[in-house]
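Question (not urgent): is this output format expected?
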Amino acid sequence: MTAATVDTQPVTEASPASPHVVEVDALKKYFEIGRGLFRKSVSLKAVDLVTLAISRGETLAVVGESGSGKTTLGRTIIRLLEPTDGKLLYDGQDITHKSDKELMWLRRKAQMIPQDPYSSVNPAFPVYRILDEPLIIHKEGDRAQRQEAVMKALQSVKLNPPEFFANKYPHMLSGGQRQRVAIARALMLNPEFILADEPVSMLDASVRISILRLLRQIQLKFGIAFLYITHDLATAKHFSDRVGIMYAGRLVEEGPVRGVLGEPLHP
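Got this back:
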C-alpha cells in the first residue's frame, strides 16, 4: 500500500518487529519557567514518569482536566516535543532523542488530527492543495497518482463528490467538513498511528458523533492505532478500547474502558 494510491483495502495483518506501535517508559517532559536575572529556573512537570503501550489497531484514550498534561504527552509521543527523560519506542525503535532529520520516516507513519478545524488548515489553499502537499513533501507519486490519492482520501472521509470538495476553500466549509479535511490530510501518507487531540471538542454536538463514527470506521478499515486525547468521558467511552486518566502530569489509572469508568480507583 503506497501513500500515492491511498489503498482503501482493509488491513488484515501486519508483520512488524514489535506488537506495539508505541511504547513509553517513565516518560518525562519538563518545561523551564521563571528564569530571570536574580532567580533560578523552575521546572514545570507537564508529563512525569508516564508508562504506557499502544497496540496496533487499538485506541487508547487519555482523559484529564485542562492542564493535566495530556496534550503535551501526545505531542511528545509523536516527537513534536523532545522528551526530558525516559524512553520512547516506535515500532520497537528508540526515538527518544533522535534528530528531526532522523525522524523523517516517523512523519510518514505517525500523523495528527488537531483540535481546531478552523486554524489547522491553510485558509489560502483549496482542499486539493491541502491534501496534495504531504505527498509533494515526501515525493510520493506523479501528478496523476497524487490526484487519484486526493480523491480517494476525500471519499474515505465521506466528502462526496470529491471533485466538488477538492476545489473548495476552507472558509466555504462547515466546521465538521473542515475537520473531515484534516482527517483526510492525516490519512494521505497511510499512517499506522494517529494522535487525535480533542478532534471533536470545537464541533457542534450534532456533528461530534458522526466524526467519531468516521474515525472508528477508518481505524477498523485501515488498522490504524489511535491516541485519543479528550476531557470528555462520554466520547472516550464511545471511541476507545482502553482509557488512561491523567492528573498533574501523571497517568494515575489505565485499563479497559468499562473497568476504569465503571469502577474508578482515582477520585
